[in-house]
């Protein structure tokens, strides 16, 4: 299946930044991850092939004051040296979201659930079917392997 880059990064970033700035003055999308993930932010954006990534905190705050966005969970990552994982999300404008994107992210969420639970065979199939560039991150992580013993559904980043 052919992958297509999601939205124009500068346009989506600008729109999300403008919308969230009034709600969260200290936050803009390129720095909206939790403090312990901010140094990795520049690495995460191209890693997932997404123009904007935000933390669960930002997602929850935006949802309190605005119904302009839907947020798709992208991953749970644990920064090197930390003890807990943090969920990261991709915001999509409801005004500009493409209908096929909702379908693709529905498949992505199914795959992510299987990935988290350790059912990597099902996860691989669903990630292959979703047609997003972000799925490649998971396909590469899993390879042809099964989930490791003690898998908790959290990917630990190896660099800080």
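Q: What amino acid sequence fits the structure above?
A:
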């Amino acid at each position: 299946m052919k992958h297509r880059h999601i939205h124009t990064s500068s346009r989506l970033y600008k729109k999300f930044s403008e919308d969230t700035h009034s709600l969260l003055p200290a936050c803009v999308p390129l720095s909206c991850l939790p403090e312990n993930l901010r140094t990795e932010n520049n690495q995460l954006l191209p890693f997932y092939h997404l123009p904007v990534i935000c933390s669960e905190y930002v997602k929850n705050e935006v949802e309190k004051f605005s119904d302009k966005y839907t947020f798709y969970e992208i991953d749970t990552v644990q920064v090197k040296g930390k003890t807990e994982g943090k969920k990261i999300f991709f915001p999509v404008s409801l005004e500009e979201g493409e209908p096929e994107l909702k379908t693709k992210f529905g498949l992505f969420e199914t795959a992510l659930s299987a990935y988290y639970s350790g059912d990597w065979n099902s996860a691989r199939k669903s990630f292959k079917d979703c047609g997003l560039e972000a799925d490649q991150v998971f396909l590469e992580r899993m390879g042809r392997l099964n989930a490791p013993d003690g898998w908790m559904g959290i990917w630990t980043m190896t660099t800080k």
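Q: And what stands out in the fold?
A: The two ends are 33 Å apart (CA to CA).
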